[in-house]
Amino acid sequence: MAMKQNKLIVFRKDFDDTAVLFNPTNGEVMGLNRTGAFLWEKMTEGAETREALVEALRNACGGNVPPSVATDVDAFVESMKKHSFVVE
Predict the structure, then answer these.
(1) What pLDDT, in 10s, does the model give residues 18-64?
(2) 41: Cβ–Cβ under 8 A, 6 or more apart, which residues?
(3) Whose C-alpha in 2, 13, 28, 32 is 20 to 30 A from the C-alpha of 78?
(4) Other C-beta atoms lying within 10 Å of the C-beta of residue 29
(5) What are the DSSP calls for the chain, one per residue?
(6) pTM of the model
(7) Across residues 77-82, what is the average pLDDT?
(8) What angle do CA 32, 1, 39 make, to 5 degrees?
């Protein structure tokens, strides 16, 4: 599943590594926890597949990720698509 960030999205990272996304097209705002902000930044750096995002999380966590990590990444991406923050 390849995906790209919507180029119009405004990303603001906070001091605690959480973040806020704003879509000026539809006015939607979404808060991201640290993991969501990390995944968003990885997409900015070119990770465009679920596998690339899962691998980035594994690397960042020293391989210590829950077995549900791929399902969790899928849920994150689907939520981003639903709110037009990510497009295919």
Answers:
(1) 999 999 999 999 999 999 999 999 999 988 898 999 999 999 998 88
(2) 13
(3) 13
(4) 10
(5) -B-EE-TT-EEEE-TTS-EEEEETTTTEEEEE-HHHHHHHHHHHTT--BHHHHHHHHHHHTTT---TTHHHHHHHHHHHHHHTTSEE-
(6) 0.90
(7) 92
(8) 25
